[in-house]
Design brief:
Length: 239
């Protein structure tokens, strides 16, 4: 089946909502709707490293590491090549990208529903997913029982309402505990040995290397925020 896309802009961000078949071993085989968020600057300058307005203050971003990769998985291999290709494509049609239109969005949603049985909604495949309005997040999350989403903006009060849908991206145990206090479950990048974790409060990502990739994201669905009553955090070893 062909890709279905809705591209629009809000303020300084271009959003790409893309539904397609996934054959990625970690994500899993199935129908996935993914969201991408690029800054206007990235597209006009055709430069993925100009990510201050798309990745904000993420510690893994280029802008927080003097233009060098901070280790984000999107900065590697085929993922990086695909993102650069997407930016080049958006650059060619930047003048035709218009503001969010409710009717166009509704048409896209209906087309997706009538074309794909969506197995996973993957928020923020690239860029900060909180750049999506909460209204759009709520609608997209109804397309599948399985969603994933991660934000480094969890500690900012303006984004507290996203805790129902996104995991807090945390990098220290202190951050993990702070996120929990304000209602966020964490996706925690761990540098300690797995045996040092209290598995009663966190589970190792089933799609990770150290879990021998027992489950794909499509099969798992643990990284879906707090709305479904999940209590445990999820951790992955730094890689």
């Amino acid at each position: 089946m062909k890709n279905l896309r809705y591209i629009y802009k809000t303020n300084n961000t271009v959003h790409v909502l893309n539904a397609k078949v996934s054959e990625n071993s970690k994500i899993g085989v199935g129908y996935v709707l993914q969201t991408y968020h690029f800054s206007i600057d990235q597209i006009i300058n055709n430069d993925i490293k100009d990510d201050k307005k798309s990745c904000l203050d993420c510690p893994l971003s280029y802008n927080q590491n003097d233009g060098k990769s901070g280790g984000c998985y999107t900065h590697k291999g085929m993922q990086l090549m695909g993102l650069k290709s997407m930016i080049r494509s958006l650059n060619k049609k930047i003048d035709s990208i218009v503001e969010f239109n409710q009717n166009e969005f509704d048409l896209f949603i209906n087309k997706v529903k009538n074309t794909y049985p969506i197995d996973l909604v993957r928020f923020g495949t690239y860029g900060e997913p909180i750049l999506l309005s909460l209204k759009v997040v709520k609608v997209l999350s109804t397309l599948s029982k399985k969603t994933t989403g991660y934000t480094h903006q969890w500690n900012k009060e303006a984004y507290n309402a996203y805790n129902d849908y996104f995991m807090a991206s945390t990098h220290t145990d202190v951050e993990r505990k702070e996120a929990k206090k304000i209602g966020f479950r964490s996706f925690f990048v761990a540098i300690d040995k797995i045996s040092d974790f209290k598995l009663s409060t966190a589970v190792n990502c089933p799609a990770s290397k150290e879990s021998t990739k027992n489950l794909s994201c499509i099969a798992c669905g643990l990284c879906n925020g707090a709305k479904n009553g999940n209590k445990k955090d999820v951790f992955i070893m730094k890689h």
